[in-house]
Amino acid sequence: MSNNLSSFDALVLGVYKDGSFSETASKKITEKIRQTIKQQLQCAGVKGKLGEVRVLYGIGSEEGLPSQIAVVGLGTKPENERDSLEKARVAAAVGVRTLRNQGAKNIAIDVMTNEHGASEGATLALFKPDRLKSAQNQIPSVKISPFGTLSSSDLTWETGLIYANAQNFARTLGNSPANHMTPTIFTENAKSVLKDLPNIEVIVRDRDWVEGKKMGSFLSVANGSDEPLKFLEIHYRGGKDGDKPLALVGK
């Protein structure tokens, strides 16, 4: 079995509504195992709807497959790239959450309809909002890796990880209690993440600058706290010459 699946304790596989498997599964899982999986799904009444999941145990261990296989429905074949992204996101997310809840720690994920979508969906689904809890009460960490590869898109497993980790970082900033995410902590977090990236400039403004700009509403909110105010600017200069500037204002 390629991709050394024996090193994983669980696997996510995608299956379409018509009973066919994803491109990766069709190439890398033997016909014998695919038929066994189909029989199990039929007995369980699985229809292959997008996000429908069943976990199968002990199938294909003699061929190096992990002991737990989450088979997730992909619905119908994708109609376009946007559709393929969404199907992979949903299926990967459902699969890894299901397996994590059953104790899996090292999961291989079928890239299914889209590598980027699979890694993005899985990483978003495994987000841990419990960093302030004691260690024994935190959700266990899970390692994920791609099973297979697709060459039909510029979007890859790695770009999906970048997108998802950026979203998870924003979730941490936005969801943290105020006393654990003061303006100073917020700006220091942003600087730490962005400091080594090309074409990025990070500027942290203080009260004097805000007063000079007569930003009254901003000042009135900040006056309700003992914490010093901070106004964060992030400049990205990686566009083409002549491109119109785009400003995104957070609140």
Automatic annotation (TrEMBL):
Pfam families found in the cross-reference section: Peptidase_M17, Peptidase_M17_N
Q: Name one GO cellular component term.
A: cytoplasm
Q: Where are the transmembrane segments?
A: none
Q: What region holds the Peptidase M17 leucyl aminopeptidase N-terminal domain?
A: 12-135
- Biological process (GO) annotations? proteolysis
Enumerate the spans annotated as Cytosol aminopeptidase domain.
168-251
Name of the protein: Cytosol aminopeptidase domain-containing protein
